[in-house]
Amino acid sequence: MTAAVLYDIPGPRARARNVLIGVVGTLVVLGIIGFVVYRFAVTGQFDARLWSWITYVNIQYLLLGALGNTLKAFAAAAVLSLVFGAVFAAGRMSDHRWVSRVSTTIVEFFRAVPLLVLIFILFFGVSRGLGVNISAYWAVVLGLMLYNGSVLAEVFRAGVRALPRGQSEAAYALGLRKTQVMTNVLLPQALRAMLPTILSQLVVVLKDTALGFIILYQELLYQARFLGSQGQLGAPILQVAMVVAVIYIAMCLILSGLSKLLEKRLRKSPRAGADAAREAEREEEFAATL
Amino acid sequence: MNVLLDNIDLYARGFLGTIELFVVSAIGSLILGAILAAMRVSPVPILRAFGTVYINILRNTPLTLVIFFFAFAYPRLEIYDLSYFTRACIGLILYTAAFVCEVIRSGVNTVPVGQAEASRALGFTFTQTLSQIVLPQAVRNVVPPLANIQIALLKNTTIAAGFSVTEAGGIYQALSERGANVFVGLLWVAVGFLILVVPLTLLQRNLDRRWSTAR
Q1: Which site in A104, A139, A223, B79 is 20 to 30 Å from A148, CA atoms measured?
Q2: Which chain A residues are closer than 8 Å to B121 by Cβ?
Q3: pTM of whole model > 0.80?
């Protein structure tokens, strides 16, 4: 349903009222933005000195390196969580009861525990409790793998389950084995339908690499904090935070733009996958936050 | 077990902080999310545009960065001195509201067109259509995913621990100062979250199953 169904095509009086609401709303929003900008000006946040750090080549390299660290953690976590998700989705759909029970428990456990607590367990807990030292990088990557992998396992399972039953029945009738049915018939269709959801889950992975900041992994936010506390630069934490925010938003918009593009293309070609896509989307509503 | 019992005061204080943060942010995000959703379906184009921009920015910013901004950068503006707790709440509310808005909006969109058309034919205004016809029906589609978002919010409150707010995510620091076993201590924190999250998840699934068959 488009929004236009909710109200009539406005007549002259309604149009006048809408313009009035629009003007008042705009004034309120502009007022808030204006107030923030005013505070920026009053507290001297627009001083050239506070923005000059952007022009230093060393700092540009520092931020570039931090961006590299963020992307490194993102890439490793993305690949590992896809693998983890595939393995445990297969485990949950297994016909052997003990395999599916164990997989279900693991997936449900890691979905219910906050990601940050997982990262703390890996980073602070395991080293002192079990004597195995895990670097900040691996704590972030493994934490992201466990959490997002579990979410993805649910997405995969929902995608396969949403395919019409005729697909697997026909494949069995043709004499294919269990593994063949899965790899040759079900997965290709399900994966195609789930691709947008998987991509938007990867946006979550990218955003969550920022948690590395809390255990002092040297990614973008960590360097932002570091630069922001440099007295010689005038402690420009507000400015650095804004630049870092732009970097994050740009990266995430690119990824989610990709996912929307795929979704649009998938919608154009009607296939059995459409149902699976809808099912996966329901799963995504859970995944979309964190 | 000893780690838990010896430091029960820490755990009580931590989880109480978590629940406080959660309740305040949940209420705040529902209110702000509803306002944003109303903006996004309203007949005023400029309000729709504001809503869209807000959601695209907030949904694509890490929550850590949002709270980071309020914890470290906000004081520089010298607007009004707020406690870390309040600032963490503001961050959580602003972030979660974007997701709440999207869920409400897509829930409104699942109500059949005929319903809104019929109510318009009966002469209902926009506000009446929304509040008396569409929203009561949308609730079925909105509540289960909304519950999911609030569960995620409950887990997200741990991030505030990274910014000096007393809550469950910060228990490990106090534990290591006391020389307790941090590994076991953190596992108890995880158990605490399981106790909080699992009943909510079960409730959510129950609602989802019951209402999706009734649709």
Answers
A1: A223
A2: none
A3: yes
